[in-house]
Amino acid sequence: MGEPTEPFDPERVVSVLGVRVHDVTFASALGALIGFIESGRPHRVITPNPEIVMHARQDPHYREVLNTSDLAIPDGIGLLFAARMAGRPLRSHVRGTDLVLRLAARSAVEGWRWFLLGAQPGVAEAAGTWLEREFSGLVVAGAASGSPDPREDAAIQRAICRASPVHVLLVAYGAPRQELWIARNQGATGVPVQIGVGGVLNFFAGRSSRAPGWVRRLELEWAYRLAREPWRWRRQLALPAFAVLAMRAALGARIRR
């Protein structure tokens, strides 16, 4: 039914500079999400990229949150390059936006209800409207900008509870706040699939434009976003440092072997 799926093996992982990444394809990642929903138990899903990995190297608590997630997809192409250099190649570049869209299509068929949280005021609501229009049958049961401030956790939990049942929760506070928010609230919300999605709601709401398909095929989405949003240049400084560390780690692994 819809997108093909494959069995998910949670033990099939690769460590990229100390951050655990699951070696999944789109089919096995989607299979994992479907299994999480069918289980009815809360699960935490992350979308690591080089920036997230570099932040985790400086923050042990954040690294622990990442490494105890139920699914960590290889969302950044830099992770695939680093894994390949280390002799532990990942099978596929699984972009978070595309995985969310595949899950939306399946949710529309299955009747799974969504809640959108984060971004600037009005963005989550606009993203919900777009999703319901694009995927006939998909129900966005609630949407709110909310706040990653722990003092607001209880109020957001109540809002999600009022929208229940909720099967998928997208949290768009940006890294590391969205992953930390999910880790704090995972059990209290009880939502089977909870995903940190960064700027995805902005794409859906039309507030940001996604790179054209040909740019994504060339794996230059990062350059496109930097050209469109030059204020991101400070965040992109993590990329050269990541590349240097990945090469050192790969060289060290080869020497040990």
Which characteristics define this entry?
257 residues, alpha/beta, two-stranded antiparallel sheet, 8 strands, 51% helix, globular
Query: What oligomeric assembly is this protein in?
Result: single chain
Task: Report the major sheet.
Answer: 6 strands, parallel
Structural class: alpha/beta
Number of strands: 8
The unreliable regions are none
**N-C termini distance:** 45 Å
The order of strands across the largest sheet is 4-3-8-7-5-6
Helix content, binned percent: 40-55%
DSSP strand content: 5-15%
**CA radius of gyration:** 18 Å
Count of DSSP H/I helices: 13
Structural domain count: 1
What gross morphology would you assign? globular
Arithmetic mean of pLDDT:
91
Order of helix and strand elements from N to C terminus:
EEHEHHEHHEHEHEHEHHHHH
List the helices and strands and how they pair.
Blueprint: E1 13-16, E2 19-22, H1 26-39, E3 43-46, H2 50-58, H3 60-67, E4 71-72, H4 77-85, H5 96-110, E5 113-118, H6 123-134, E6 139-144, H7 153-162, E7 168-172, H8 177-189, E8 193-196, H9 200-205, H10 213-217, H11 221-228, H12 233-236, H13 238-256
Parallel strand pairs: 3-4, 3-8, 5-6, 5-7, 7-8
Antiparallel strand pairs: 1-2
Helix pairs in contact: 2-3, 2-13, 4-13, 7-8
Descriptive account of the structure:
By secondary structure, this protein is an alpha/beta fold. It has one domain (13-252). It is 51% helix and 14% strand. It has 13 helices and eight strands. It has helices spanning 26-39, 50-58, 60-67, 77-85, 96-110, 123-134, 153-162, 177-189, 200-205, 213-217, 221-228, 233-236, 238-256, and strands spanning 13-16, 19-22, 43-46, 71-72, 113-118, 139-144, 168-172, 193-196. A six-stranded parallel β-sheet has the order 4-3-8-7-5-6, with helices on both faces. Strands 1-2 form a two-stranded antiparallel sheet.
